[in-house]
Specification:
The complex is a heterodimer.
Chain A: H1 3-23, H2 26-42, H3 53-69, H4 73-78, H5 91-106, H6 109-119, H7 125-132, H8 136-151
Helix pairs in contact in A: 1-2, 1-3, 2-3, 3-7, 5-8, 6-7, 6-8, 7-8
Chain B: H1 7-15, H2 21-33, H3 35-54, H4 60-65, H5 71-75, H6 78-94, H7 108-125, E1 134-135, H8 139-150, E2 164-174, E3 177-186, E4 191-204, E5 208-212, E6 215-231, H9 235-248
Antiparallel strand pairs in B: 1-2, 2-3, 3-4, 4-6, 5-6
Helix pairs in contact in B: 2-3
Classes of the chains: A mainly alpha, B alpha+beta.
């Protein structure tokens, strides 16, 4: 297997998780990853092999996502209540999860993008700086601010209504 | 002198493995001696866990199946073949089902379930005396009966908070298995159908919305179960109800 293929295969879990974090849906994530792989294979010659493949793949995937869903941003954003892949999480965890999900999607775009690439895409700050075209110090500060907002203690949290069966 | 502007940046770099070994050691010493910093680290660790849980990781096989060249798909996407096949079976009479955006890899079974849910909604909400098989006054019996047939706890979710009163339910045949249908009604007499059935593969999805004729259709999958909610109610209004249901149906 070529180095390209090996790196491609190794990048798949991160690529998929990143796609899922953007689309919040398994089918859409599958679709994006598949199209991303296809495009990567077609444009293989454009890859600068002195650099890792993963950031390049993430860039392609992000562009595909933007092309495809920009018009539908409102639509994607509509699904704000998903609980992701946590199938067996307890209620309290789900509540926490929901909250983090909601906060993640209300972050300023720059912060969210940086955090998504790090947390789901598994990229280093240097790689994120490449993908987003911003200095590495900016990546650091965006990721840090994003995490801080997600972790803030919510003071006036309303008790959530949960059904009792 | 440090390249970090504050503790938040340090903690982030620490979590992401972006520190030099020396920076890490220094930071760990601070963590031990500074309770405030330690507390922050704990809160961030919770967030990290939530971030991890937020996104599933598909199996290796599944991921590698995505690597198969899409060339053939471009020529004739499998979903198109599937849609064509289904159109003959089910959608023909309905004049084509409007789930335009919903194509990709929804299984045939899932597509069929959504269509059946919608069709059942249309058929039974139009009924007056026979809208349901077991009426709300026999809820307990309905729950026991359907739980047995469906192999899942079938507690009827109450939606009076959302102005929806439970009318009753029924069992429906769906392919080689059973499906359950619960019907609700609001003060304006609008009826809403919740359709539940088991799929072949476990999965997880967000709420996905579509419109078909006068109805909004929401579906989501939780484990092996597919839930489809159909109502002649605009999406913005239906969304909180769907969310309420999703919470209760876990």
């Amino acid at each position: 297997m070529s180095r390209f293929q090996t790196q491609l295969k190794d990048s798949l879990p991160h690529l998929w998780r990143y796609a899922y974090s953007l689309t919040r849906d398994s089918y859409r994530a599958d679709d994006l990853v598949q199209d991303c792989v296809e495009r990567a294979l077609r444009k293989k010659s454009q890859w600068d092999s002195t650099r890792g493949l993963k950031p390049w793949l993430m860039t392609i995937l992000l562009n595909l996502f933007r092309d495809r869903y920009r018009a539908q941003v409102a639509e994607v954003a509509f699904v704000e209540d998903y609980v992701g892949g946590a199938e067996d999480t307890r209620w309290e965890d789900r509540a926490k999860l929901r909250e983090v999900v909601q906060r993640l999607h209300s972050l300023p775009e720059g912060q969210r993008q940086a955090l998504q690439l790090v947390a789901f895409g598994g990229l280093s700050y240097a790689e994120v700086s490449d993908v987003l075209g911003v200095p590495i110090g900016t990546v650091l500060s965006r990721v840090a601010r994003a995490r801080a907002s997600l972790s803030e203690v919510r003071e006036h949290r309303k008790p959530e209504l949960r059904s009792v069966k | 002198m440090s390249r970090f502007e504050n503790d938040q940046e340090r903690l982030s770099a620490y979590l992401d493995g972006e520190m030099t070994p020396e920076e890490s050691r220094e930071f760990e010493v601070d963590l031990e001696n500074n309770p405030e910093l330690a507390e922050m680290a704990m809160a961030w660790a919770d967030t990290e866990e939530a971030l991890r849980d937020m996104v599933p990781t598909p199996s290796k096989d599944h991921l590698e199946s995505l690597m198969v060249s899409n060339t053939s798909r471009r020529v004739q996407p499998p979903w198109m073949q599937m849609a064509a096949a289904l159109a003959l079976v089910a959608f023909g009479a309905a004049g084509g089902f409007g789930f335009g955006e919903w194509r990709n890899q929804a299984s045939a079974l899932e597509q069929q379930a959504v269509f059946d849910a919608w069709a059942a909604h249309r058929m039974f909400t139009a009924e007056n005396r026979h809208a349901v098989e077991v009426a709300a006054n026999e809820t307990e019996h309905l729950q026991t009966w359907l739980s047995k047939r469906m192999g899942r706890e079938m507690t009827v979710p109450q939606l009076t908070d959302h102005g929806m009163v439970f009318v009753g339910g029924r069992m429906l045949p769906f392919q080689d298995r059973a499906a359950a249908q619960y019907m609700y009604e609001n003060a304006q007499g609008q009826r809403m159908t919740l359709f539940m059935t088991k799929l072949d593969e476990a999965g997880q999805s967000v709420q996905l919305y579509d419109t078909e004729q006068d109805e909004t259709v929401v579906r989501w999958q939780d484990g092996e179960w597919l839930f489809v909610l159909v109502a002649p109610i605009a999406r913005g209004e239906l969304s909180p109800i769907a969310t309420g249901l999703q919470d209760k149906l876990v």
